[in-house]
Design goal:
By secondary structure, the chain is mainly alpha-helical. 55% of the residues lie in helices and 5% in strands. The protein folds into two domains: 56 residues, no CATH class; 223 residues, Hypothetical protein af1432, CATH 1.10.3210.10. The radius of gyration is 21 Å and the shape is globular. It binds fe (ii) ion (2 copies). One fe (ii) ion binds next to helix 6. The site of one fe (ii) ion (FE2) has 5 residues, from helix 6.
């Protein structure tokens, strides 16, 4: 096992309490920044900056400091109100939470949700704008951020209780966390999946459910959504073919479908205009996959 871990360039300015090291030409690690110092942007941008490493023994401390710093950065961006930067900061948090091997980071998400709801508790229009700003991240992260913004749009528009809003936002943020455990090419490919690939893909609700249970003390409603978001009321969904699905599971499933149709092109399918996506889902309602009342509530929040 290597004794030192490389730090992502974009995250270097966020650390204060972790010593940094650089690698010499002889492949020795030397102290660059001691505990208690920041390497701020000006110091970083001046001159030729070497790659920064932390000692393996500091890994857990660094993880905690990073997730706190990302939420602090997010709160700052939220208070400044520039949506593009808010979206980028949220993307950074989701990216860390969905990194395989960093599952404990999921525990920083309730604070993220609190910051978001605290500032936007009545502003569903802001969430609508947030979905219109891509942030150049992976398909999975962009999808997760969009689903979360759409869920909040729904919650604010229909004035759901704070508990419902919190839990639904949390569920949206982690609903596809199981996809992070599946090979990236399969998740990111714009091609139609082969039967075998699809079989692998359909394991993600169970993988995600297990990840949440193992790493958090979240209310069971959240891992339940993770397990249920591809189930459909006519029993045609997966992984279990259920026809009784929790209210949260139905809502996240509906918004998840809408997001995938509207925001993502595949080689075999161009992305749809919002009304086209809604008309596809409407057809699915006649097949009894989604509840009609829920669909109506969702379209209401999109059109206002
Ligand atoms: Fe999914
Ligand atoms: Fe999804």
């Amino acid at each position: 096992m290597t004794d030192y871990i490389l730090i992502k360039k974009s995250q270097i300015p966020l650390f204060k309490n972790i010593p940094f090291f650089y690698k010499t030409a002889n492949k020795e690690y030397r102290l660059y920044k001691k505990k208690g110092d920041y390497l701020d942007d000006s110091r970083l941008s001046s001159g030729n900056h070497p790659s920064m490493y932390i000692h393996y023994a500091d890994k857990e401390k660094a993880r905690i400091e990073l997730t706190k710093a990302l939420n602090k950065d997010f709160a700052k961006k939220v208070s400044e109100g520039r949506l593009r930067e808010i979206r980028q900061a949220l993307t950074n948090i989701v990216n860390e939470a969905l990194t395989p091997g960093q599952e404990k980071n999921i525990n920083s998400l309730p604070e993220t949700v609190e910051i978001l709801i605290g500032r936007y508790s009545k502003d569903h229009a802001a969430m609508a704008l947030l979905t219109q700003l891509g942030s150049n991240s992976s398909v999975l992260i962009e999808h997760t951020v969009n689903v979360t913004a759409l869920v909040l749009q729904f919650c604010f528009f229909h004035r759901l209780s704070e508990t419902d809003t919190q839990q639904l936002s949390m569920a949206a943020l982690v609903h596809d966390i199981g996809c992070a455990k599946i090979e990236k090419e399969l998740i990111e490919t714009p091609k139609r999946l082969t039967d075998k690939q699809f079989e692998t893909y359909t394991t993600h609700p169970e993988l995600g459910h297990a990840t949440i249970i193992e790493n958090t003390n979240f209310d069971m409603a959240i891992p339940t959504v993770v397990m249920e978001h591809h189930e459909r009321l006519d029993g045609s969904g997966y992984p279990k073919g259920l026809n009784r699905i929790s209210a949260y599971g139905q809502l996240i499933g509906l918004i998840d479908s809408y997001e995938s149709l509207t925001y993502r092109s595949k080689l075999f399918r161009k992305k749809k205009k919002p009304y086209e996506s809604l008309s596809i889902i409407k057809d699915e309602i006649y097949e009894k996959k989604f509840a009609k009342g829920l669909f109506k509530k969702f379209t209401a929040c999109l059109t206002k």
